[in-house]
């Protein structure tokens, strides 16, 4: 088990990285929205920016909640279940409020920004609540893996133009659509591999974890993506409805992107869980590898010569003479 000081340092590092990711997504969303002069394009830009920002705020809320709990629990201080949830959820509320301000202040009179800010705040609050769950090492590992999945996606997006021809992209629109589909599958598989391997790497020294918990941790980043998609489709539904009314093309693109995000989240979920289970399974000893316990030696009972039966023989002889 890590020392308390090392655990606090790890939690603070995760919080810093999660906040950096969230701040980058919020800054990118704000620049993308405010850089538009057309109101319709501004609406579609908001819809495009929301899913990534929501995912980042989920992780940021969880990361900050874990860091605050680590600071409160230092020096072996006991924290009850209710207090733990209050602290972690409250941390998520604060982070969510700050993130929402970055969007709402774009235009305080527009309801679209209020809805977007509220969705972002809800994501951070839910992330903070997740930090209050038992086995906080699993939550931390899932948060690190979610950041890794984001980095994998970012690198692949940067290399997309160079690698799409590898998947068969040509001059025709049909080949480009097929290549984009294969590209999405590759992104989900690589993200799932990263999620499973990183969670296993971070949790492998915890002897108290059984293999189903490793599978759950490997699936964690995918579960966060699914949760983020649910938030986008529920709390942020009005934004996407409005963006879909701009044109038929925008409505079609929003539908395609929504399906792609969900498929990617499910692939990360299942591949991550499978990868983590296989990784931990390779460390388990098979029954053939376990040395059988030595059998107790059976000492042969000493064979003693039968006692002399002269007395019995005399009695038999006397009985024969009597006859």
From TrEMBL:
It comes from the Bacteria. Residues 286-323 are annotated as: Disordered. The chain crosses the membrane at residues 52-73, 85-106, 112-133, 140-160, 180-200, 265-285. Keywords: Membrane, Transmembrane, Transmembrane helix. This is Uncharacterized protein. Residues 299-313 have a biased composition (Low complexity). It comes from Winogradskya consettensis.
């Amino acid at each position: 088990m890590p020392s308390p000081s090392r655990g606090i340092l790890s939690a603070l590092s995760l919080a810093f990285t999660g906040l950096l990711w969230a701040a980058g997504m919020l800054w990118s969303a704000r620049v993308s929205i405010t850089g538009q002069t057309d109101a319709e394009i501004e609406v579609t830009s908001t819809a495009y920016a929301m899913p990534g920002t929501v995912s980042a705020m989920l992780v940021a809320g969880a990361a900050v909640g874990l860091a605050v709990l680590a600071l409160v629990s230092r020096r072996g201080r006991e924290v009850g279940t209710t207090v733990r949830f209050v602290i972690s959820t409250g941390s998520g509320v604060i982070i969510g409020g700050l993130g929402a301000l970055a969007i709402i202040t774009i235009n305080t009179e527009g309801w679209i920004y209020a809805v977007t800010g509220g969705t972002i705040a809800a994501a951070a609050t839910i992330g903070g609540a997740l930090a209050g769950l038992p086995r906080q090492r699993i939550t931390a590992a899932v948060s690190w893996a979610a950041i890794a999945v984001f980095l994998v996606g970012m690198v692949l997006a940067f290399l997309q133009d160079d690698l799409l021809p590898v998947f068969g992209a040509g001059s025709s629109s049909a080949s480009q659509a097929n290549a984009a589909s294969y590209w999405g599958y590759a992104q989900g598989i690589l993200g799932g591999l990263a999620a499973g391997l990183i969670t296993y790497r971070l949790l492998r020294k915890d002897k108290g974890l059984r293999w189903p918990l490793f599978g759950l941790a490997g699936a964690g980043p995918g579960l966060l993506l699914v949760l983020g998609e649910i938030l986008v489709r529920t709390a942020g539904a009005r934004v996407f409805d409005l963006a879909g009314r701009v044109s038929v093309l925008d409505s079609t693109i929003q539908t395609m992107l929504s399906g792609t995000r969900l498929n990617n989240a499910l692939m990360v979920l299942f591949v991550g869980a499978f990868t983590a289970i296989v990784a931990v399974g390779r460390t388990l000893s098979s029954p053939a590898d376990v040395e059988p316990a030595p059998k107790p030696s059976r000492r042969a009972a000493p064979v003693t010569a039968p006692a002399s039966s002269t007395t019995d023989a005399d009695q038999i002889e006397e009985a024969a003479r009597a006859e």
